[in-house]
Amino acid sequence: MNRIALPDGSTVPALGQGTWKMGERGADRAAEARSLRLGLDLGLTLIDTAEMYADGGAEEVVATAVAGRRQEAFLVSKAYPQNASAARLPRACEASLKRLNTDFLDLYLLHWRGSVPLDETVEAMEKLVAQGKIRRWGVSNLDVEDLEELGEGLSSCATDQVLYNLEARGVEFDLLPYAARLKMPVMAYSPVGQGGALLRHATLKRIAARHGVSPAQIALAWTLRGPGVISIPKASSEAHLRENADVWKIVLTPEDLAELDSAFPPPKRKQSLAML
Ligand SMILES: NC(=O)c1ccc[n+]([C@@H]2O[C@H](COP(=O)([O-])OP(=O)(O)OC[C@H]3O[C@@H](n4cnc5c(N)ncnc54)[C@H](OP(=O)(O)O)[C@@H]3O)[C@@H](O)[C@H]2O)c1
């Protein structure tokens, strides 16, 4: 599996696992933890979660999944914007650590921008780094002008996690080139369009048939086609997980890419950052 360098020189697998919608039903939790564990077996060791998901329930599922295997995993969690202040971020982080049953996060993100000034959040994040509670920090759903506001903080921002898939290509116009100049990877969320209409698109189905793979695998391989993108599909089913972990065998041809560009045109001008 390809690995992607973070600004601090460490590397992470380019393909990780999402957890949104996990932990919502008690009856599903054991199976969800098993699927995350299978993902670990398959090399999908970066696991993305958030205090928001199932009100902390997804973090608890992740804790079950990584029990006894913490050192294999690269755990990412996210704080609500209202918790991103100097006073509240340490408490939110501590609560996430407790639910994850760990004493540090590999990466802690501001989930989206709220009313807390960004420089206050950066300072609070840096304090958590200094205390060893988090290894590094980053942001999510921040557009280029928000990132610019980070000022000097930008140099220690590990990633910006944004919506990126064939149906949502706006970030290609400015955010992806901007991040590339900073050597900061972008984390693509909802890379298979939440398993919806994207996977039934005729062009995607045609290209998938040509390669003998599934439309989701083409959608995923497409997000991973260039450098500097980490993709974090969520898959609870074993079949989906195995498909996703296998996308490395797919080499999209110039013809495939041209067909995808024609069906899902790249942006010609600035678009405001799309988010879910
Ligand atoms: N920062 C943010 O604001 C933000 C927003 C959204 C998401 N995220 C993160 O990004 C992760 C991924 O995004 P997402 O969950 O919104 O959407 P996604 O990963 O694009 O789609 C997940 C859906 O696609 C299905 N799926 C996965 N692999 C598949 C395959 N190979 N074939 C067919 N269907 C497949 C899953 O089904 P099964 O589960 O049944 O296998 C699930 O229903 C989230 O889980 C979360 O961790 C972050």
TrEMBL record:
Protein name from the UniProt record: Oxidoreductase
Entry-linked InterPro entries: AKR (IPR020471), NAD(P)_OxRdtase_dom_sf (IPR036812), NADP_OxRdtase_dom (IPR023210)
Gene3D superfamilies cross-referenced by the UniProt entry: NADP-dependent oxidoreductase domain
Binding site for substrate: 111
Record-linked CDD domains: AKR_YeaE
Active site: 53 (proton donor)
Marked site (Lowers pKa of active site Tyr) residue numbers: 78
Organism whose genome encodes this protein: Teichococcus deserti
Pfam families registered for this protein in UniProt: Aldo_ket_red
Residue ranges annotated for the NADP-dependent oxidoreductase domain, each copy included: 15-263
Gene Ontology molecular functions: oxidoreductase activity
